[in-house]
């Protein structure tokens, strides 16, 4: 049934369909009867899937990656679909519109997406208020909420640490963990912050702020799949040195290798980060490399190319503690969490 619906929806602009579908889900979840039906249909029934990672208890290890619910508008709806955790954002200190539309493109032949959203969001304060409202309304919720934080486009790199500090402080009381995003390819110059010195300044500053808080929150870093080996080793060494709580592997890629979609179509789409099936192999490789190099001392959330229970199993076998879906959710539909955990 979803495949038929998906084929219809794929005739329309990808970003417009995203908001249309989520707003329809919001409507159905606003009616207690239909929400109960959805919850019964999509909530995993498996016992024994609870996981303890970086001091948090996850009802299941399947999460939704950042970029889907940028403004924390759909937490109740996503919990209804069975997600064990949702990462909001990427959130920036000030609201910003992101890049010019269209900026989200489907590659059905490759089961992939290309996006150049550019951190479009309503700002840290608005996101914090929505999460707080969700917590108040759903006091018995077991949903783990992560805060993915970034810098505004207008902020020069030398001042980026200030943006991350603002987001960290604004969200600290309402989210369960943080992910520092310096690896999106859609904000000019952002990936330069992955250099060891720049990264160390941001992360150690956040660690020092965290230590002043009564309830310290796990701090993770999301890395690019396009890092060369030396830069990847530098990041892992830094993570060990400053005792990061985890790494997320990986963000979208700027690579266009081994795609079925024609070269002309790819060139017509233009710049952006590629996600989905083409990212699967590389994100799994990086996950396994971190797992072995750190001797399991740094938990990894693996993201990239997860569409099925077998894909998830492969990630876990290669060292992932948790997994995140995004593109797989678009292609496989609202039952993806249940399908992954049905194995």
Please state how the strands of the largest beta sheet are arranged side by side: 3-4-7-8-9-10-12-13
How many distinct beta strands?
13
Cα Rg: 19 Å
**How would you classify the quaternary structure?**
single chain
Total count of helical runs of at least 4 residues? 13
- Classify the secondary structure makeup into a structural class: alpha/beta
Determine the CATH topology. TIM Barrel
CATH architecture: Alpha-Beta Barrel
- CATH hierarchy class name: Alpha Beta
Mean pLDDT: 97
Major sheet summary line: 8 strands, parallel, barrel
Distance between the termini: 21 Å
Number of domains: 1
Which geometry do the CA atoms define? globular
> SSE order, as H and E?
HHHEEEHEEEHEHEHEHEHEHEHEHH
| Full CATH superfamily name | Aldolase class I
The percentage of residues in β strands lies in 15-25%
Structure, described:
This protein is of the alpha/beta class. The protein has a single domain, classed as Alpha-Beta Barrel (TIM Barrel). 40% of the residues lie in helices and 16% in strands. It has 13 helices and 13 strands. The protein has an eight-stranded parallel beta barrel with strand order 3-4-7-8-9-10-12-13, surrounded by five helices. Strand 12, helix 11 and strand 13 form a beta-alpha-beta unit. Helix 5 packs parallel to helix 6 and helix 6 runs parallel beside helix 7. The radius of gyration is 19 Å and the shape is globular.
Main attributes of the structure:
343 residues; alpha/beta; TIM Barrel; 8-stranded parallel beta barrel; 13 helices; 40% helix; 16% strand; globular
């Amino acid at each position: 049934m979803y495949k038929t619906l998906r084929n219809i929806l794929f005739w329309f602009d990808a970003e417009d369909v995203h908001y249309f579908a989520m707003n329809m889900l919001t409507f159905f979840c606003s009616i207690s009867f239909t929400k109960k039906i959805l919850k019964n249909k999509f909530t995993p029934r498996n016992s024994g899937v609870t996981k303890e990672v970086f001091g948090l208890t996850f009802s299941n290890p399947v999460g939704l990656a950042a970029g889907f619910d940028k403004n924390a508008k759909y937490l109740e709806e996503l919990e209804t679909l069975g997600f064990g955790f949702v990462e909001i954002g990427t959130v920036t200190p000030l609201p910003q519109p992101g890049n010019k539309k269209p900026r989200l493109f489907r590659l059905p032949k490759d089961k992939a997406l290309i996006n150049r959203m550019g951190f479009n969001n309503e700002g840290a304060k608005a996101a914090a208020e929505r999460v707080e409202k969700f917590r108040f309304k759903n006091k018995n919720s077991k949903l783990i909420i992560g805060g993915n934080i970034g810098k505004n486009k207008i902020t020069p790199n030398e001042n980026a640490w200030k943006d991350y500090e603002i987001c960290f402080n604004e969200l600290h009381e309402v989210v369960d963990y943080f992910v520092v995003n310096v690896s999106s390819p859609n904000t000019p110059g952002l990936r330069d912050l992955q250099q060891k010195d720049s990264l160390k300044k941001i992360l150690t500053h956040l660690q020092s702020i965290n230590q002043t808080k009564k309830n310290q929150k796990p701090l993770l870093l999301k890395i690019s799949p396009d890092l060369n080996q030396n830069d990847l080793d530098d990041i892992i060494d830094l993570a060990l040195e400053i005792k990061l709580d985890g790494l997320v592997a990986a963000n979208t890629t700027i690579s266009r290798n081994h795609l079925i979609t024609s070269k002309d179509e790819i060139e017509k789409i233009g710049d952006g980060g590629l996600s989905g099936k083409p990212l699967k192999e590389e994100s799994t490789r990086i996950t396994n490399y971190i797992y072995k190099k750190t001797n399991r001392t740094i938990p990894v959330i693996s993201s990239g190319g997860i569409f099925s229970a077998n894909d998830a199993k492969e990630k876990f076998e290669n060292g992932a503690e948790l997994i995140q879906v995004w593109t797989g959710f678009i292609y496989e539909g609202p039952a993806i969490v249940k399908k992954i955990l049905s194995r």
